[in-house]
Amino acid sequence: MLRDTGRILGRGDLAGAAGTMTYFAAIAVVPWVLLAVWSTTWFDGVDDAERRLLQLRILIPPEMGARPVFDTVVHTGTHLGLLGVVVMLFPASFYGEGLRRACVPMHECSDRLTSWRGRVSMMALIVLVPPLTWIYVRVGTELIGLSPEGGADGWGSFALRVWAGFTSTWLLMSVALTWVFRAVTPGRPRWWVAVVGATVTASFVSGFAQGFLLFLSIGIDVGIPYGGLRVVGGVVAVGLWLYVMHILIITGWALTQAIDLHHGRTQQPAPHPDAVDDGSPPAAAPSR
User: Fold this and answer.
1) Vertex 180, ends 114 and 30: CA angle to 5°?
2) In a domain, 224, yes or no
3) Which of 24, 61, 228, 285 minimizes the number of CB atoms within 10 Å of its CB?
């Protein structure tokens, strides 16, 4: 399967595919985040949802100024109107196009209507956004007490917080990636294969996300390479993180295709033992 995975990735340019996906993500990531934040108002109301989400800022390292950005996103998302949500679905759909376009060159079959097939299939994830976000927020609320600002101290609380954050991100992302590998990207593997591939891929993405939180806690001035413009440096840092994450997702998609291909081979019936090829040409059909 590893050889098949490498062969699938070798059909295209992995770095270029990740760059393609990152370009579309730049259009779609913020709308998806705002839609997730807005969905929390279904359960708690606008004011209660905003207050609950703002409590989670404790879990974000403050060293690189990410907390004010988080506050702005929470306030904007919880106060979205219905018209704003409907309009936001259009840029959000571009993520599906990016996922499909990035993987099509590596797939052995041709693809038609790539743009619209990717966008429409991606929109089905809207159904999963409210329950997944609700679970994630509840888990985050429980983790507040394990943070230093929440009153916890010591390596034990830190390890438990990291483990819980990793596990929750891993499991919830596995659900979303299962649909992505099954319906959004080309290939349409069997459902159980999509689940296996998504679970493996989500574990790497979740670990990488924990690494990004660690990066935020270092306190590096990301604006130094850009003349002190921290906003530009922050955007580039997030873009680089998305780029590496998309390399993991594309590799996970290729692994999923390889598993499906390997399972297809093992399911093929073996030739009958009496059917021995002696090298002679087939007999000609009798003439009438």
Assistant:
1) 85
2) yes
3) 285
- Helices first, then strands: H and E counts in the chain: 12, 0
pLDDT tens digit sequence for 113-150: 889 999 999 999 999 999 999 999 999 999 998 888 87
pLDDT exceeds cutoff 50 at 212: yes
Tokens of 48: 């209660």
- Domain holding 10, by residue range, is 2-106+114-263
The whole-chain average pLDDT of the chain stands at 89
Q: pTM here?
A: 0.87
C-alpha distance from residue 28 to each of 32, 35, 37, 87, 166 (Å): 6, 11, 15, 12, 24
Dihedral through CA 90, CA 95, CA 101, CA 104, nearest 10? -120
Contact 20, 250 (CB under 8 A): no
Query: Distance between CA 18 and CA 25 in Å, rounded?
Result: 10
Cβ atoms of 257 and 3 within 8 Å: the answer is no
177: exposed, middle or buried (Cβ count in 10 Å: 0-12, 13-18, 19+): buried
- The DSSP letter of residue 213 is H
Task: Provide the domain count of the chain.
Answer: 1
In whole angstroms, give the CA distance from residue 60 to residue 71: 11
Q: What is the pLDDT of residue 288?
A: 40
Q: Which of 19, 274, 4, 32 is nearest to 173 (CA)?
A: 32
d(CA 222, CA 214): 15
Q: Is residue 288 in a domain?
A: no
The C-alpha angle with vertex 242 and arms to 240 and 248, in degrees rounded to 5, equals: 110
In the DSSP assignment, the letter for residue 165 is: H
d(CA 145, CA 160): 11
Task: Give CA torsion, residues 208, 213, 219, 222, to 10 deg.
Answer: 50
